[in-house]
């Protein structure tokens, strides 16, 4: 077995993940966070996980929502740039914490820039995005020009 397309083998589970993903996106908006921040979180998680399919998808989505090429170019090293707000930096740090599951838990992101509701929304979005990365990578979704 070289690879299995998970969505084709178990389409009902895939549909549930799509619904879960929609709830994660909705939580970002309901928590008062910019949907563009959600795309940055998805991009950063996909960079960490090495998911080319999701990187291309969410980079395109971010551009469609008005993201700049300069910010996209430095999101992989967001902590070294001055392009991101305190809230964006906190959300990116939290998303990295959820993705990497650091033990002991690091709270470097917790500088007051995110409310509890916003931190919960970013955490759920990170959980969803990590699931998507694993589906795309495991299924070997094609990424070609």
Automatic annotation (TrEMBL):
Pfam families reported in the protein's UniProt record: CMD
Residue ranges occupied by any Carboxymuconolactone decarboxylase-like domain in the UniProt entry: 11-96
InterPro entries per the UniProt record, alphabetical: AhpD-like, AhpD_core, CMD-like
NCBIfam families tied to this protein:
ahpD_dom
This chain's protein is named: Carboxymuconolactone decarboxylase family protein
Give the species this sequence originates from.
Prescottella soli
């Amino acid at each position: 077995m070289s690879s299995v397309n998970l969505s084709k083998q178990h389409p009902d589970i895939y549909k549930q993940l799509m619904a879960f993903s929609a709830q994660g996106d909705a939580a970002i908006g309901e928590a008062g966070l910019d949907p563009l921040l959600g795309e940055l979180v998805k991009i950063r998680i996909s960079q960490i996980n090495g998911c080319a399919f999701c990187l291309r998808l969410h980079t395109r989505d971010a551009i469609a929502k008005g993201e700049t090429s300069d910010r996209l170019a430095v999101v992989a090293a967001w902590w070294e740039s001055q392009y991101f707000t305190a809230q964006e930096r906190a959300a990116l740090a939290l998303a990295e914490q959820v993705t990497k599951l650091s033990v002991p838990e690091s709270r470097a992101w917790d500088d007051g820039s995110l409310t509890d509701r916003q931190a919960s929304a970013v955490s759920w979005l990170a959980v969803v995005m990590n699931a998507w990365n694993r589906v795309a990578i495991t299924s070997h979704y094609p990424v070609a020009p």
